[in-house]
């Protein structure tokens, strides 16, 4: 047989063998990245939460407008001093291995989150000092200090419950074969290839689960991810890029939805972290930088107006946004005047930017805008981990980063802005802000909390520890055959109610 | 048995080579700026959490101690676990090796199928339009960027025509047909690139042997031109092509990052790059060590093939 005939045969075989297969419905979701460990206790990457949404139910969830609602719980009640909370559990819930979800299981999980070495949940719920089992379906969490944001933590990985039996059996290998109480059970994982889940027959809310199988496929290249959506190999893509939008909108077989993210894009300024803080230590200098940036123009130029200009640690659509301080108009004259007053009319500083399209382009525009106010910005590209390490050490004047955002306002501001906050690379420290943000953790009433946050925001609008720039929209692209999809500001795809027609 | 002795001697050399590679990759990684523990912690900047990670993975120990701990495990067959997803590195390698090997073999087959015939034809018909066309095709295969060709092929065959899937690798033992469809486009992308190089080398080697005395003698004996080209010239011309093939094949086994990324194929390349960006030391070290071992073995295989292809070498 000649070589050409052999090749032709092989090709023909290949094409024929690819015939129709699916008897059961399969939803393939394109992820931007490969998730890390599939264990809620040690997971830290955002992308893993998309997989957990199918795998592991949580004690609570948030609604699209960020109200906290019960999921594996049915109700909760704070003690009057906010130092303990009683949670009633949903009856009849089973883990994927058939074990019951009861108060003992919740106690086990909370203790596992707190005591596992290398746990990333400890900082979220470490204030839980003990868990009391009141009866089979009721638990009480005792706190070392009042902490209202605790409830919001329980809507994420800290609230995810895993089967105690499986967790004990698998030990630190649990993430390789996770067993939870979500609508889908784990089938297999090919690292960097796919994660496969199948419908769990004993799910407590199985009447609302319609798709048999879900596969998560990490594709880092956004063009390839979009092509896979268009070819029908994927039915959904998460965090679609704004540059993909015209193509998705132009394709009648596809749909796209976008909601404002919970987080923000920012440039932390070195206020007091080591010798490099000298340049930007004066608040007037930082105000000048803030004034010289035209956020509307920036968002228009780089993101085709798909994102939202911002100046606070929550987006203007949030309940906790301080409306007294809207995004200001650019004022170059005022900026110049402030720089003169501070004695730094020819300010020069270095902005560190990771090698990533969005921030690189934005940095160049900011550089040009600041130049008009007489400020020389040197752009320095540093790979992400290097940049964050330098941020930590204080080896920076300004760097370009973001915060992914949390449903509770505390998660967006406390560790970033308090004197001892772990995220506070600027080493910004204001006793009044500290007191206000700490108080806000202890007040359950949203209106009362808002007053405290508004005061803190007011102070920070003067101090400008970081340049708050814009909020992305989280875009999800999906096939028009998919119905029942509701976008959430956390960008996590809820599988409940989804149907493929 | 000089051949067996030769192979044995080369295998012994493998040990210091791999040791050298392991030291090199270990120290180069330590030179990377950026804290592995911090990379792993992500948005979590809590000093206690970061310190716990550092202690768990011995990142707080001096580099030589870290190397000794790692080497000690490697010698016992344990390559450690991925810092990021906690999967044992041996398991990751075992899962990805077949994928990478399949991709490499498929690409190599395409490269050989294109490169050698095109090289032979263009040498035999030197200066004709056929030669020019073959050269043009080979050069475009060489110079077209892989990611661009990949995206174009996806847009044509997956999006426009819908003949082949755009992404989503399926293992051959799961569904052979789907496996072949998912691997075809990436093999074409890689194969055309390598094929261009093969064609140029085959052509060069052929031109050289075609002007050799023994070829002239063969022609003088009025051996048919077909036999002169294929039997007398090609066989000798294959020696440099085998070397090149082994090198290219080894390169393919080291992972084809861009192609793997575009087609979402879980191979070595993607694992290596993710490993570097996440400062996932154990993964990077494991991949490099195994790739280096394979590379050395392939070179050895190429040498054995010389023996078989060229009888003159057997005596020496």
Largest sheet, strands/sense/barrel of chain B: none
Assembly form of the protein = heterodimer
Helicity of chain A, in percent? 25-40%
> DSSP strand (E) fraction of chain A?
15-25%
Secondary structure category of chain B: mainly alpha
Number of DSSP helical runs of chain A: 16
Overall mean pLDDT of chain A stands at 91
What Rg of chain A, in angstroms, do the CA atoms define? 25 Å
Could you say which overall geometry of chain A the principal axes of the C-alpha atoms support? globular
Outline of chain B? globular
- Read across the widest sheet of chain A, the strand sequence of neighbours is 8-9-10-1-11-20-12
Instruction: Note the total helix count of chain B.
Output: 14
What is the β-strand count of chain B? 0
Helix content of chain B: over 70%
Quick one: biggest sheet of chain A?
Answer: 7 strands, mixed
Strand content of chain B is under 5%
User: Which two protein chains have the largest interface (Cβ within 8 Å of the partner's Cβ), and how many residues from each?
Assistant: A-B, 67 and 64 residues
Mean pLDDT over the full residue set of chain B:
84
Along the chain, the helix and strand elements of chain B come as HHHHHHHHHHHHHH
Query: Which structural class best describes the helix and strand composition of chain A?
Result: alpha+beta
